[in-house]
Amino acid sequence: MExxxxxxxxxxxxxxxxxxxxxxxDAAMQVAGPADATVVLTYVVSGExxxxxxxxxxxxxxxxxxxxxxxxxxxTVTHLGARLDERGIDxxxxxAVGQVAEEVIAAAEAEGADQVFVSGRPRSPTGKAVFGSTAxxxxxxxxxxxxxxxxxxx
Length: 154
Hints:
CATH superfamily: HUPs
Number of strands: 5
Strand order of the largest sheet: 3-2-1-4-5
Strand content: 15-25%
Largest sheet: 5 strands, parallel
Distance between the termini: 43 Å
Number of domains: 1
Shape: globular
CATH architecture: 3-Layer(aba) Sandwich
Helix content: 40-55%
């Protein structure tokens, strides 16, 4: 049985540092580049973060329906997009407003992702039990394989 890799989703949120976003993209490009796969940069923000970003990026009056367009202009996304352009890797931006795990899983399903790349911050076992883990939720509920890229501690 031959399997193909057409779509790779990279999960992003404001909690991921620029350095860790670069590490996450590096891992995704190692897979997407040789497979000639499209990378879906999926940036998820809360409602308040969306309104702040829309205003700051010149999209006053934008609604959740405009999330792709607004978040495509976000600094993190434009930086990662430029890196993908340099490598000749096709990409699209999927912006979303809501809970990160839920939106990433929904995007993976909607985009037909073959693999998801996610990062997270180191936490104690007690912290995970009390607060949960977004990365863990994505790993457990994703419709496709997930690659976890450990975050560098500050």
